[in-house]
Design brief:
It comes from Nocardioides panacis. By secondary structure, this protein is α/β, with parallel strands linked by helices. It is about 30% helix and about 20% strand. The chain contains 11 helices and 10 strands. The chain is globular and about 65 Å long.
Length: about 325
């Protein structure tokens, strides 16, 4: 069972450069959340702050009653055992084969025998489809395989929270689809709390229970998937629906002249909200909501064609 992450008034800067200010959100226990935002908005900084690798200037990150922004190093060390992290490039030790990379956390943090470690490592490698590749070095395999090896390593301590830092970075659309399905299947199996940082709009529209958007040094919105996918908030609508019209430009914000030139232009209609990705076994996850439930409960009319099981999510479908 996953655990809740409660973030309150979080502010982080590097010197005089403010990254984001007064970020508050609750990542619900056992649910899948996605954090989006234009490049340079501090999404990876947020992940590092949640695990205590970076200290915020202000605010709190409370996990199981412990504020990791102000706790002792000893308490932080214990809280970190709840986490598994998949870094952008897999973060493999180049001189170790995949087996030893995956086994590393077990050897560092447990007193398991080598036979017990082998059983756990092979279980996780089978989970991510890497059985038979355990003797290979990271430099001998593809980027997608390194990502899966990194995920196996993130799972060996049976974490209650799993953080994914741009898991689709460098992957082709097919491998990204396989990885998305794997994330959903893992959540169904282990019920861990999952937070994914990504730029992939298809991932954001089909995988999570909740979506957040960092923009212009603040959290623009965070909430249920259907809330953001039906939002008329300009920056949310523009980013989630891959539209050119809106406040985001090639640099994070469009200048006044660009915004002025867009006045009077009609925004494209919101695309249909797709069905959420189901686990491979077809059994709904604990946190998975009935399609359209949030819209009905909040009196929101979803875009025409929403929740059609046959709706294409191929590139260019929205």
């Amino acid at each position: 069972m996953g655990v809740e992450i409660k973030v309150q008034d979080l502010t982080k800067s590097f010197g005089r450069s403010l990254i984001w200010k007064d970020v508050s959100l609750t990542v619900p226990a056992g649910e899948i959340c996605v954090m989006l935002g234009p490049s340079g908005t501090g999404k990876s900084v947020l992940l590092k702050t949640l695990i205590g690798l970076l200290k915020p200037d202000y605010g709190s990150v409370v996990i199981e009653g412990t504020d990791i922004a102000s706790c002792s190093e000893k308490d932080l060390y214990e809280i970190r055992k709840l986490f598994g992290v998949l870094f952008q490039d897999g973060a493999m030790f180049g001189s170790m084969n995949l087996y030893d990379n995956v086994a590393f956390p077990l050897r560092e943090h447990t007193r398991k025998t080598e036979s017990d470690i082998r059983a756990v490592v092979m279980e996780k490698m089978e989970l991510v489809g890497l059985v038979g590749a355990e003797d290979k070095l990271p430099g001998e395999i593809s980027g997608g395989m390194r990502k899966r090896a990194g995920l196996a390593r993130a799972l060996v301590l049976d974490p209650e929270i799993v953080l994914f830092d741009e898991p689709d970075s460098g992957l082709d659309p097919v491998r990204t689809s396989f990885l998305n399905q794997l994330i959903v299947d893992l959540n169904a199996q282990i019920d861990a709390t999952m937070l994914i940082v990504t730029h992939d709009v298809n991932t954001a529209r089909t995988v999570p229970d909740n979506i957040g958007l960092l923009y212009h040094k603040h959290l623009a919105m965070f909430g249920p998937r259907e809330m953001l996918l039906s939002s008329e908030e300009p920056v949310v609508r523009q980013f989630l629906n891959a539209q050119m019209i809106g406040p985001i430009g090639m640099s994070e914000e469009k200048d006044a002249d660009e915004l002025e030139s867009e006045k009077g232009q009609e925004l494209p209609p919101l695309p249909p909200i797709p069905m959420q990705l189901d686990p491979s076994n077809g059994i709904h996850r604990r946190s998975q909501r009935e399609p359209g439930l949030w819209c009905r409960e909040n009196g929101v009319t979803p875009p025409p064609g929403s929740f059609d099981e046959n709706m294409s999510m191929a590139p260019g479908a929205f």
